[in-house]
Amino acid sequence: MKKQVNKHLLFDFFSEKTTLMQRKLIEEWLEDSENQELYYKYLDEWEAQHPQFFPDLDKALQTYQFVLEGEISSKEGPEPMEEVPMPEQNRGRWWLLRGLVAASVLFAALFLYRKELMYQSLKSAAGHSSTYRLPDGTQVILNVNSELLIPRFGFGRESREVILFGEANFNVTHTRSHTRFVVNMGDHYQVEVLGTEFVAYSRKEGKRVFLSRGKVKLQLPEGKQLYMKPGNLFSSAQDGTFKVSTPVKPQELTAWKEQMFYFDNTLLSDVARQMEERFNVNVRISDPLLSARRIGGIYRAENADDLLQILSELLPIEIIQNQDYIELRIPQNP
């Protein structure tokens, strides 16, 4: 009879104290998706009992720069002294000090470019979505105008963490060691999964996560947590308010993977916003009546011109191509 997977056994597993047979038992236990939520619950509890120190690197760098610029000084420090010539025997020490300062400045420069040093940047092709397979086998489809940062020197033992700017579809591979896959979306939003498929959206308008299958846990600002089930859509606004819903037509959220646009009584102003996100173009509609027009249908458009052509056939509009932006307006009567 197999030993029951319980809290004590999972705590040993998190502490890397389990045997090969015990790890195999936990792996089989996790194949049942109903057990994954309990796994996360105990993992959160274990991490709370085993805190780790993570230095505030940005704050440390800021302090270091203040010191270099002389902006941090002691209020009770010595009075300014008249400059005197340096004794000959101290010149060697002076050159040594200069060498140390130069080395520290070089270190600071490397610190400033730690993003380029520590992460590899994956970007979507111009005007097209792009598909990548990560070192752990996870497949990622990047929407247009999106970027994914992955660790340049490989994933860590505790988690597989990536950083998303834009929108991407993740089909996460489940590893034998059950390491969590973490998508950092900025502004204290994180998606944590074991093995699942979901779409994550992180732009200036807000955050969005649509779960196709499996289960995920969202880390939200102010320490809030949220578990999602298949078919759930999480969306948040710029002010931090959020909601979880079940969209009737989820195709609208995933159509971009096939270079499609899915419109269901969609405002033309929202169509313009989607064009800006997808094709990185500036679309302006000055007439509020035109902005309020609605369209429907599923259309394939690989670039902005394709979609503009479709709009010109659906609506009586004029398309004006300016140097820095595209203007949509109602045609002037002859």
UniProtKB/TrEMBL annotation:
Q: Which UniProt keywords apply?
A: Membrane, Transmembrane, Transmembrane helix
* Name listed for the protein in its UniProt record: FecR family protein
Name the domain of life: Bacteria
Instruction: Give the FecR protein domain ranges.
Output: 122-217
Q: What parts of the sequence cross the membrane?
A: 95-113
Question: Which InterPro entries does this one have?
Answer: FecR (IPR006860), FecR_C (IPR032508), Ferrdict_sens_TM (IPR012373)
Which PANTHER family did the record assign? Answer: PERIPLASMIC SIGNAL SENSOR AND SIGMA FACTOR ACTIVATOR FECR-RELATED, PROTEIN FECR
Q: Which Pfam families match?
A: FecR, FecR_C
Q: Where is the Protein FecR C-terminal domain?
A: 261-326
Q: A Gene Ontology molecular-function term?
A: sigma factor antagonist activity
Gene3D superfamilies, from UniProt? 2.60.120.1440, 3.55.50.30
Is NAD set as a keyword in this record?
no
